[in-house]
Amino acid sequence: MHVDIGAALGEVAEPGVDEDELDALDERVATAHETIAAGRENGDFGYAALNLPEETDPSVIREAVEPVTDAEYVVTVGIGGSALGAKTVTAALADRPDRHVILDNVDPEHIERTLAALPLEDTAINVVSKSGTTAETLANFLVVRETYEDAGVDWTELTVVTTGESGPLAQLVEEHDLPRLPVPDGVPGRFAALSSVGLVPAAILDLDIEGLLSGAGAAADDLGPSLYDSPAYAYGAVCYALEERGAGVNAVMPYAERLELFAEWFAQLWAESLGKDGRGQTPARALGATDQHSQLQLYRAGPRDKMVTVVRPRERADVPVPETDHDSLSYLSGADLGQLLDAEYDATVASLAQAGRPAVEIELERLDAEGLGELLFAMEAATILVGELADIETFTQPAVEWGKRAARGLLSGEETEETKTVAERPSYRID
Amino acid sequence: MHVDIGAALGEVAEPGVDEDELDALDERVATAHETIAAGRENGDFGYAALNLPEETDPSVIREAVEPVTDAEYVVTVGIGGSALGAKTVTAALADRPDRHVILDNVDPEHIERTLAALPLEDTAINVVSKSGTTAETLANFLVVRETYEDAGVDWTELTVVTTGESGPLAQLVEEHDLPRLPVPDGVPGRFAALSSVGLVPAAILDLDIEGLLSGAGAAADDLGPSLYDSPAYAYGAVCYALEERGAGVNAVMPYAERLELFAEWFAQLWAESLGKDGRGQTPARALGATDQHSQLQLYRAGPRDKMVTVVRPRERADVPVPETDHDSLSYLSGADLGQLLDAEYDATVASLAQAGRPAVEIELERLDAEGLGELLFAMEAATILVGELADIETFTQPAVEWGKRAARGLLSGEETEETKTVAERPSYRID
User: Fold this and answer.
1) A to B CB pairs, distance under 8 Å
2) CB proximity A177 to B under 8 Å
């Protein structure tokens, strides 16, 4: 993985990072790296995520999913960190990403329609909930189970569960003798992509989870005390410095359709980890070249409150544009679609630099299991680094708990402080 | 459509809009409404978009697509405004949204894989380009055409073209005697969802485009000189006022899977229209309840630089959560998935208000053709209103042109000012 910060330097962009500022930051990176390395060593909460490349045993996952590897489809029942990582991996690596279906919302129409379209006898079920009590996940799983039963399909033959050692899901595993995979200790859901939490569907679809872990391991080996030697830290440090100088938005724009989900995964990782204490960049997801003709207007000419992160693989499939005799299209003749996409990428970076707007480039050699593993790990390490530099609690999410309690109270019908606040919430309607 | 601005008022949120500020703004809304009404009356560039509900003739579209209504799939070849509207409509209204496939990027792998998975003899082609020269669209169309030819499928029998009266696509229409639909006069692509630009795939899938247009017409009738009488203007005015007070980000979060694409459509409309002259909110897309457990951390506890727009239909399908005998799940017993989703929605709005963060609610009676038409039209009108209040050129996109010229130059191989800038763009690599 390569990171290019040229278009984020102070001599190019405003906000930008001056080189002497980077040098000063590099000393803080060294200290942060020590903290991170010690946290990994001790297996401390959160930092333990960076040990997953070596601690996740792919053969354990392969063994657990063995009974369902004949399934054509796999439906993941989970939410947030328990679904997005898995979705990101199959979207990037599967020949047919449609074989992995996600139920990570409680929209009744969507659930109904999705289940109705699947051949249930040929669809494995991957349930993921650390606590085994997540409302959305359990509600959906109860619906899924009943749908299988109503269709006369034995769901117990098709289900793999990833959950902790106690709770309703763990009980269910015992009752029905289901394969259970553990959730890794000390790893918040959003940092768990490189464990059974993120790898079960990929294993069912027989994707290269070993390569993914070894790519992640390579990125782990790249971490060191200086941002100048570590692409992940360089990325994190530059984001931090730009945020300090006013870049409150980080627009993440992969130039590869298979990485569209990666941008979504990154967005939740970044927002939930770093959106605290009145700070934290807002991740904005975009896709190149598609969004280039709309969002770029804002990125180049709007407020100087953002940075753009572009991501691409260096290798692309070979799809030549057929010849045409229309003069106005002659510039396309002899081109390849990949060349066109790369021309758009180069043009975007240059056009941001030309307008003095900061951009950071992330390049992978190729978009395969190793490349993706490297990217996911590097972004996790970058997130943790930013948390250290900003001195915030990267691994907690206190601000989402209020809403969870409120939703729970609303459903159970008991009156709590939260449900009262919901009932009395401000309203000013315009019809 | 109903808009609730209660949680965006100054007494609740910071940034927030005070009621006397709204009153003052209402006078400016009256003036802006006059400009907009006059622009519509004269069919002026851009404003003409608001006349589409009455000017688009659905029977012309139905007639043009008649030869291909037997197709099981339709593949749209277009980019930006020429694809997103169409995608938004079928995603919201089709029973099987997978019947509409979009090629709006030039990622070679994706194109190859997508075409390989389609039964071409049963797949209609919908090509959309106003100028008929858009590089991505034409390159993709040349690839699509050749793929059909290689498979021995007569693409001319399956193709519908939406383009202007001249250019390579118009020529092609003549050569092969294809059905051609016009692009509406004076309507930028991103405002063209309610014309043939956005409605052809919906018509091929036999969706209710008449209902869509009549819903949009109802929203048009709601426009008037006061924000207090017009949900669309109320929304636009509040966004404008919040932006003025520091809400540089507008996080749009529909609580309905079928509206996920709507958020994407809104993002390009908002960014490309309003991201100018150093201003413009950054649209951030999210999906409730899925993203509630991650993004909400940032929205509640991050910088006070954003507002949240939540959108939901009032009616939902009935999918009860099956009973369970696990104590810890008893609060789910007797609930319905829709109730759970609505509890999450209510909890999110209340939790933002409780943290003093501004939120605006948009509610549709139901998510059908009328409701969607109303929503799309209202958001277009809101965008135009913000442009008037901010005194910017809503309907142009000068900042994307540089990149287009650069990409074109890179492909043709001629050296231009832009290609030189690309070649000399700043670089500082960390490997």
Assistant:
1) 462
2) no
